[in-house]
């Protein structure tokens, strides 16, 4: 009896995976919190305040691989001279993923172009996440952890809750 129940539950969960495979085009928004690690405290950031906001759009080239681009407002940072500035990034990333029924586990890795005051540069970004696709809808909810490098000494980690919409 337990085996039949386990098989029934497993097939019910896995039967949704074809209906919720990666979409050709998707978009989403997220909100979260950033944490700053400055490896050389004499240079760039002292602290970060306020929430982060992000918006993204992507394409699922294959059911297990996609490309994503987005915009992130990392919140306000306080510099050494007590000046408060906002940091913004735009990014392009590769996004491999695995689907387990309505649950998708993914990784992201790519480049982000960031601006802080008059400074601009390009650095690496990477992270992991998980999404849950709501049954029979194009909507999914998730959580992701991302790290953005800013020069050689500073890493900003973001933990965000996301909502995605499959467009096609």
UniProtKB/TrEMBL annotation:
<keyword id="KW-0472">Membrane</keyword>
<dbReference type="InterPro" id="IPR011250">
    <property type="entry name" value="OMP/PagP_B-barrel"/>
</dbReference>
<feature type="signal peptide">
    <location>
        <begin position="1"/>
        <end position="21"/>
    </location>
</feature>
<dbReference type="InterPro" id="IPR027385">
    <property type="entry name" value="Beta-barrel_OMP"/>
</dbReference>
<keyword id="KW-0732">Signal</keyword>
<keyword id="KW-0812">Transmembrane</keyword>
<protein>
    <submittedName>
        <fullName>OmpA-like transmembrane protein</fullName>
    </submittedName>
</protein>
<feature type="domain" description="Outer membrane protein beta-barrel">
    <location>
        <begin position="8"/>
        <end position="151"/>
    </location>
</feature>
<dbReference type="Pfam" id="PF13505">
    <property type="entry name" value="OMP_b-brl"/>
</dbReference>
